[in-house]
Design brief:
Distance between the termini: 45 Å
Number of domains: 4
Radius of gyration: 29 Å
Largest sheet: 8 strands, parallel, barrel
Number of helices: 38
Number of strands: 10
Strand content: 5-15%
């Protein structure tokens, strides 16, 4: 029988150094570990391809790869055309085989890079010990202590802190869950090879398992054959993060408390519960008709099932381990009382006491969790029914935590201290996940609320011109209605289906919170918010569903404006100031702990005005909201709607936090985790723990930064740069005749809209304009075609204009780069996305445009801006080439590009054939979608 992997691959890799960590940890050895890992995986991939596809296919792949590497060394549009024309001569099967080879290479390369990230973290931790890694929570505490910040002030800051990553289903994760699971399996085998002491036969088994999984990977469809339903997205999202979070959350809290004790030994007690997680999947209705009230109920149920089953497993494990005998470890009176109460509640007190009280109380907790799970699985929330009260069911997470705290406190005595750690880890999970797992946000567009209320007001005889009223008139009408107690909406709804759906959404939220899980939903997000009335509309609809009952001291929803475009971002403070003077809204805030959340949208503002103006508008809105918080005493919590791509606010999360205007408002922050960034940041426990610690590090540090005003000369410069950048961006995108045609034809946008990676359509409405286009397919398409335009266009012209106005003096911009985190982060993110562009390949995509005079004119403008921006960034940063100041990232991109390029050339050929109407059209489309997946894996930061 032939070997599953070639002998030369095994002989060329030192399996004991595959990780490059261990006793000789260091950056150089970690890099060697990456090379060893990639050599192993690439060798198995080559062997698999040779065995399954034959030598001719393998030689073809090698030939195409060599041609792309040569083009990288000497870019030439003529040679690029020759390579494309050569690929035009291949048949569809040959093209799909090449796509599969290069796509799988990138999946394995990404996996090897993740292994290297973990390895370098371990190596650096070992080298720096006992000092902490930079970017950790402990590093932030040491920095603050060295600056004279006392432990008491740190504790006060931590009491205010709340960090909430929010997972969304936005469609930029092109890989199937099946593929992610296969990569996880391979990663686990690599971990065995790296960290476990294996016998030679066990190493062979691990290698054989890797080889078998890569072969299965090769033989598996890489694109979905049906578009996922929302319920599929919910399951997928939970599957991506749940197991990782269950392992990471207790570890992060242990690290936080250990760091606090080491840095400030005089402090006692726990770190407060400052970490939560949220999701939009199953609650985000904006433009997605498939998210219904039933789907939202199902989302809550699935989340409850996930967390309650996990708790049951953990409590059962605790029961197995806590075998303490009453004769050797006498339980406290508190534990005995709790145990008696449980017996009475569950069985009428008929069960006899045992000699293993901890096991017994664990069994009773497990029984209560089982009853709670059964309740979650069978609940049918109905707005017209009262909430049931079943015996034994946990209604609040505090009840479960209290039961666990009784055990932890009892074991905290000298004879059980080590075992108490196990219970406290589970208590931390209850702090974070409650009985609901991830808090579900509900989102809907403001226009839907206005249209629904217009119909309700007409039916009730309140107004027949609500939609035609001015902003002031709408506000005043809502002010009057909120002052009345009369109901506006009847029990049975005589309205249009659209209005009924809006009303039923609020009634479903009320039913879920009253009858299913009181912590499952907390925030209602209003996309398209442009005026104060948009928040009063939601408050009125919430009142009609009994979610806002001021006379009873109840307001169940945080009402969150999503400020997405430039005008509402600039009006953030006036919008909130008007609301703070409205009695009903002010009462709502009081009932919500005087806390107001504001969401800042990066996607639409970037598509409207370009990356520079978008970033600056959000910075100013954040700063001005901080000023409002200090003046009014209302706590303002920001929610940053970032995407994975630079054109949508992407980039390292901790750097983005540090780049915001400083001050205590940064203590409370929510931010979206989207698309491929979720698997990248939460797919491995070590990376997830590092990611969360870096965010907590940044939040703590910026909370103590000086709140003084920005250098006026910098603000003046940034205003001009932003305005100029916006002008140049809009001149190209919105004022160039035929630009939409260029976008649709010079990118795979049309084909991306057929990629079954999400339930949401590409356009918000029926119109096919740039204004109506969603930001994700806009950015995703430009990255696929190697333009990467949304992440950089306009910056170069803006800097050039600025220099012309200032006699070519670059010193101020260089000083800003050195000393201002906002400007430095903007420049660094821009150069990163520019390094992933390739204008030679982008020019070939422009060849797909039917009107070549249009293509020439648009591409020439893009090319000029690219080279200008690249040159000016290098001058600002003092570099010779882009990313010289981040050599590891530079080398990673340079290593990837020659392997991404073949996929781009293949995609160009497939698009040309598909758009010419060649047959078989269905297979050509599938092949094109496969190339989209491969390029997304190769470039990353795609959506």
């Amino acid at each position: 029988m032939p070997a599953l992997f070639p002998t030369d691959v095994r002989d060329s890799v030192d399996l004991d150094l595959i990780g490059g960590s261990g006793q000789n940890a260091g950056g150089e050895l970690a890099t060697q570990g990456f090379q060893n890992t990639m050599c192993l995986l690439d060798g198995i991939l080559d062997s698999t391809m040779l065995r399954l596809e034959g030598e001719e296919s393998f030689r073809l792949m090698d030939d195409v790869r060599a041609s792309c590497q040569a083009l990288r060394g000497q870019p030439s549009i003529e040679e690029a055309h020759r390579l494309r024309d050569k690929l035009l001569g291949l048949n569809l099967d040959e093209l799909r085989t090449l796509t599969r080879a290069f796509s799988l290479f990138f999946d394995l390369n990404n996996l090897a890079e993740q292994q290297t990230r973990v390895r370098k973290l371990r190596a650096r931790a070992e080298q720096l010990a006992p000092l902490p890694l930079p970017g950790t929570f402990e590093a932030a505490l040491l920095d603050l202590r060295d600056r004279g910040v006392t432990g008491e002030r740190v504790v006060e800051a931590l009491a205010r802190t709340m960090v909430v990553p929010v997972f969304t289903a936005h469609p930029s994760e092109a890989r199937r869950r099946t593929m992610l699971e296969k990569l996880d399996f391979i990663a686990n085998q690599l971990d065995r090879l790296e960290y476990a002491k294996l016998l030679p036969s066990e190493k062979d088994e691990a290698l054989a398992d890797i080889s078998a999984e890569i072969e299965t990977f090769w033989l598996t469809d890489t694109v979905r054959d049906i578009r996922p339903r929302v319920i599929d997205e919910i399951r997928h999202g939970l599957g991506l993060v749940s197991e990782t979070l269950f392992e990471v959350v207790p570890r992060v809290y242990r690290n936080l408390e250990g760091a606090l004790r080491r840095t400030f030994p005089e402090l006692t007690g726990e770190v407060p519960a400052l970490l939560r997680f949220g999701t939009w999947i199953g609650g985000d209705r904006d433009g997605n008709r498939y998210v219904t009230s039933e789907v939202t109920r199902d989302a809550v149920r699935l989340h409850q099932e996930t967390i309650l089953q996990h708790y049951m497993e953990q409590v059962a494990e605790l029961g197995r381990r806590l075998s303490h005998s009453r004769h050797l470890c006498e339980p406290s009176e508190a534990l005995l009382v709790a145990l008696a109460q449980h017996r009475e509640q569950l069985s009428g007190g008929s069960e006899p006491a045992t000699n293993e009280p901890y096991r017994e109380i664990c069994r009773t907790i497990e029984t209560r969790l089982k009853l709670t799970l059964e309740r979650a699985q069978t609940a049918q929330p109905d707005w017209d029914r009262a909430a049931p009260h079943e015996a034994g069911v946990y209604r609040e997470p505090s009840e479960l935590r209290q039961d666990l705290a009784v055990i932890a406190d009892d074991l905290g005595r000298p004879r059980g201290q080590m075992a108490s750690v196990l219970v406290r880890d589970l208590m931390r999970e209850v702090d974070v996940f409650g009985l609901h797992m991830l808090t579900l946000d509900v989102r809907q567009h403001s226009s839907r609320h206005a249209a629904a209320l217009d119909e309700v007001f007409r039916w009730a005889g309140v107004s027949d011109r609500y939609l035609k009223s001015t902003s002031t008139e709408r506000f005043e009408l809502l002010d009057r209605e909120l002052a009345h107690n009369r109901p506006l909406v009847p029990a049975h709804l005589p309205f249009s289906p659209e209005t009924v759906e809006v009303i039923q959404t609020f009634r479903s939220i009320a039913a879920i919170l009253e009858q299913q899980c009181g912590q499952a939903i907390d925030s209602y997000i209003i996309s398209g918010t442009t005026e104060p009335a948009h928040l009063l509309e939601v408050l009125l609809l919430a009142r009609e569903a009994r979610l806002f009952r001021p006379a009873e001291g109840i307001s169940r929803l945080q009402i969150v404006p999503l400020l997405e475009s430039l005008e509402p971002l600039s009006n953030a403070v006036p919008i909130l100031q008007r609301l703070l003077s409205q009695p009903a809204f002010r009462k709502h805030l009081e009932l919500r702990g005087n806390l107001q959340e504001v969401m800042l949208g990066y996607s639409d503002s970037g598509k409207e005005a370009g990356c520079v103006q978008s970033a600056w508008s959000i910075y100013k809105a954040h700063r001005d909201l901080g000023d409002l918080m200090r003046r009014t005493g209302v706590t303002i919590q920001t929610f940053h709607g970032r995407g994975g791509a630079i054109g949508r606010g992407g980039g390292p999360a901790n750097q983005a936090i540090l780049a915001q205007a400083p001050g205590p408002m940064n203590s409370r922050i929510r931010f979206t985790e989207q698309g491929e960034a979720i698997a990248d940041r939460y797919g491995r426990t070590a990376i997830a723990a590092r990611h969360l610690e870096q965010i907590l590090n940044a939040v703590l540090l910026i909370s103590f930064e000086d709140q003084g005003r920005l250098d006026p000369s910098w603000e003046w410069a940034m205003e001009r740069l932003a305005q100029s950048s916006c002008r140049h961006f809009r001149k190209l995108v919105y004022e160039t005749p035929g630009f939409m045609q260029y976008f649709e034809q010079a990118t795979p946008f049309t084909e991306i809209s057929k990629l079954k990676i999400a339930s949401r359509p590409a356009f918000r409405g029926v119109a096919r304009t740039i204004n109506d286009l969603r930001a994700i397919p806009w950015v995703f398409s430009w990255i696929q075609s190697r333009h990467t335009l949304p992440g950089w266009f306009g910056l170069g012209s803006a800097v050039s204009d600025f220099l012309l106005d200032h006699g070519g003096d670059m010193a101020q911009l260089q000083d800003m780069y050195q000393r201002w985190p906002f400007w430095r982060t903007l420049i660094d993110n821009t150069q990163m996305i520019m390094a992933k562009a390739d204008l030679t390949i982008a020019r070939l995509y422009a060849d797909l445009v039917e009107d070549q005079s249009l293509a020439d004119a648009v591409f020439r403008r893009i090319e000029e801006e690219y080279h200008m921006t690249s040159d000016l960034i290098c001058k600002i940063t003092g570099q010779n080439r882009l990313l010289d100041n981040v050599p590891m990232l530079q080398s990673s991109i340079e290593r990837r590009n020659p392997f991404v390029d073949p996929l781009s050339y293949i995609q160009l050929v497939l698009l040309q054939r598909l758009r010419r109407g060649e047959e078989p059209a269905a297979e050509l489309l599938t092949a094109c979608l496969e190339s989209i997946n491969g390029i997304a894996s190769g470039l990353k930061n795609t959506g």
